[in-house]
Amino acid sequence: MAHDTPDDGWEARLGELARRIRRGTRAALAEAAAERAVDRRGPGALARPVGRGAGDETFGLDAVSEHIVTEWLEETARVRPLSFLTEDRGWRHLGPGPEAGGRPVPLEGFDHGGPRIACDPVDGTRNLMHDLRSA
User: Fold this and answer.
1) 82-86 β-sheet, strand order
2) pLDDT tens-place string over residues 18-41
3) HSE-up (13 A, CA, CB side) for residue 135
């Protein structure tokens, strides 16, 4: 199979994913800051661990961004095969299902001709949760 090249529209797709992640995490952080202003007893739900992912501990903020990534991945895989890596879920290989525009289906591995994308949606989760802007 031929592999996708950068001029196949992936730059625009990844740009849209980055914008979605920024909007979603900023909205979640703003909501958490408002909650902390009312109740100062703890770090809030975004700073609490919610599980252990494939590569690192998953915090509430990671779960917000992972949900955004999963939505994007499923939308994209409806029309193009791709492999996608995140710290929370590990590698996911998805591609178009048998029905046009239908749900994507899991693929066996990397031999599908689409791109392989590694993504850390929130690099520096711990710092960002505590409003350290270097994250």
Assistant:
1) 105-106, 90-95, 82-86, 116-118
2) 999 989 988 887 887 777 655 555
3) 18
